[in-house]
Design a protein that fits this description.
Blueprint: H1 6-19, E1 25-26, E2 49-51, H2 56-68, E3 73-76, E4 93-96, E5 103-107, E6 112-116, H3 121-130, E7 133-134, H4 147-152, H5 160-163, E8 170-176, E9 182-185, E10 211-218, E11 220-221, E12 225-233, H6 236-249, E13 254-261, H7 262-271, E14 285-293, H8 296-312, E15 318-321, H9 325-335, H10 338-345, E16 348-354, H11 360-374, E17 379-385, E18 390-396, H12 403-416, H13 441-454
Parallel strand pairs: 2-4, 3-4
Antiparallel strand pairs: 1-2, 5-6, 6-10, 7-11, 8-9, 8-10, 12-14, 12-15, 13-14, 13-17, 16-18, 17-18
Helix pairs in contact: 1-2, 6-8, 7-10, 11-12
The structure holds flavin-adenine dinucleotide.
Flavin-adenine dinucleotide binds near residues 75, 76, 82 and 86.
């Protein structure tokens, strides 16, 4: 869709200013840089205007007006996304949910929390914790991302192995369609099979089918004990067998199973000078296992017993159990060291892919072979939430111009392995042209038909997710 003319733009802005509260519509120079790009920093572009509705009715009014003028809109949450989805394209109005903020209700009986879409994830977590409950959705961007953005991207993060992705926690939702129609499915019930589960149209569809305005989330009882261990393994097969052993032995209480290949582990320890490996010798694989329960003594015993059996059967060659929160944080600091090493790797390509665990070795070997043949200066660092089928790869060749080739090689092989080009960060605009590696032409055609049905004028997040 082409950008609107100046007079039409002025007409839309004038109309929006009349419809919304004072200060809700910003134009240049008030906009500044803030709304121009998501966390990737790629393709920054100032929006035509920024609208910041403070209620669902105001979101509906904005979309009705934009629909009437066929004005393209980019939906913005906390702008922590990693797929370019919230970054404006030329001529788009940014619809920011930042003023639609606040927890509306915490229901301890149904164990649900109801929040407006622009509430930061951490504020929702805190409200649940204040009531002695747990919102089991957590990741590094918790302080800045919105709950609406996390649901629009079906975010994952820590604890997916136990509680699933954001989708699994959404019981109800309210969304506004491109034409301003408000769809209220604010269900609190665990069981509700009365017709289509319409909320799923908006979970993980990255703002292409509607704007999420309110959500009802399922909470869990707060867990009071936590056991963490770092183990070493000599083969990928052993890492997979260990996963099965801890899943069974820890009786469903496992909350993290993070695997670091030596390439990643060694680089973190090389660059982050404050970190030390608890192991004297290098190993091909390192596994961070964490379980959460309600009785520290019993849970410690259970983890020790599972790891002792794993040592005996040589699934692992060494293990250290964190005896303090400080030690636990040191283990996690190695796993989370990616944030500290990426500046040294720049320009790099971050990949967030998933596939059947069984094909991971084939994928990684083929990818390393392809890199060695075509881009011999490449460095490929790998870690993953293995229990979630999710691998993160950080590839650098030292030359930005070669990044596209890295993506082509990686996503081509992901497709051959039957995997997904996006395990958790979404497709946005940056991965849109690679979607065919993970979805069939018929699937993509159906996505297009849903888009056409719900947003016939194509005003909501155009050019994202679905290839044109
Ligand atoms: C440090 C860091 C760590 C991260 N770790 C993880 C992780 O472990 N797991 C994981 O899955 N992701 C992770 N992410 C990425 C994660 O997807 C985003 O942080 C978050 O889910 C997006 O929320 P946001 O409010 O910032 O959305 P934005 O970035 O503003 O938008 C993201 C997309 O959602 C759409 N959108 C936003 N709000 C709405 C709404 N209300 N209605 C409809 N569409 C909307 C936007 O149009 C865009 O397409 C991480 C990001 C960072 C920066």
């Amino acid at each position: 869709m082409s950008a609107v003319s100046v007079s039409t733009r002025d007409g839309i802005v004038y109309r929006l200013r009349n419809q919304l509260a004072d200060g809700a519509v910003l134009t240049s120079p008030e906009i500044g840089e803030r709304y121009s790009v998501d966390y990737t920093g790629e393709n920054a572009q100032a929006p035509l205007a920024v609208v910041r509705p403070g209620s669902t009715a105001e979101v509906a009014a904005v979309l009705r007006t934009c629909s009437e003028f066929a004005q393209p809109v980019v939906v913005q949450g906390g702008l922590t996304g990693l797929a370019g989805g919230a970054t404006p394209r030329k001529g788009e109005i940014a619809l920011s949910l930042e003023r639609l903020n606040g927890v509306e209700e915490l229901d301890p009986v149904s164990m649900t929390i109801t929040a407006r879409a622009g509430t930061p994830l951490q504020a929702v977590q805190d409200a649940a914790a204040d009531a002695g409950l747990l919102l089991p959705l957590d990741f590094g961007a918790r302080g800045s991302c919105h709950i609406g953005g996390a649901i629009a991207t079906n975010a994952g993060g820590n604890q997916v192995i136990r509680f699933g992705m954001a989708r699994n926690l959404v019981l109800g939702l309210e969304a506004v369609l491109a034409d301003g129609t408000v769809i209220s499915s604010m269900n609190k019930m665990l069981k509700n099979n009365a017709g289509y589960d319409l909320k799923q149209l908006f979970v993980g569809t990255e703002g292409t089918l509607g704007v999420i305005t309110r959500v009802v989330l399922r909470l869990a009882p707060r867990l009071s004990s936590r056991c963490t261990a770092l183990c070493t393994a000599e083969s990928f097969g052993n890492v997979v067998d260990l996963l099965q052993a801890v899943q069974t032995g820890l009786a469903g209480s496992i909350s993290a199973y993070e695997v670091m290949w030596a390439s990643y582990y060694d680089k973190v320890l090389e660059i982050v000078e404050t970190l030390r490996s608890p192991f004297a010798d290098p190993h091909p694989f390192y596994v961070l296992v964490e379980s959460e329960g309600v009785d520290q003594a019993t849970d410690d015993e259970r983890l020790e017993s599972v790891l002792a059996s794993a040592l005996e059967s040589q699934l692992i060659t060494d293990a250290v159990i964190a005896r303090s929160e400080n030690e636990r944080q040191t283990f996690w600091a190695i796993r989370d060291g990616v944030g500290e090493i990426t500046p040294a790797l720049s320009p790099y390509v971050p990949l967030d892919v998933s596939m059947d665990i069984k094909v991971m070795p084939r994928f990684l070997e083929s990818f390393d072979r392809a890199l060695a043949a075509e881009l011999p200066n490449s460095l490929n660092l790998v870690f993953g939430h293995l229990g979630d089928n999710n691998l993160h790869l950080f590839v650098t060749t030292g030359h930005e111009a070669e990044n596209d080739r890295v993506l082509e090689l990686a996503y081509g092989l992901v497709g051959e392995c039957g995997g997904s080009i996006s395990a958790e960060h979404g497709v946005g605009s940056l991965k849109r042209d690679f979607l065919h590696h993970s979805r069939t032409p018929k699937e993509i055609d159906l996505m297009g038909r849903l888009k056409q049905a719900l947003d016939p004028r194509g005003i909501l997040n155009p050019g994202r997710v679905i290839p044109s």
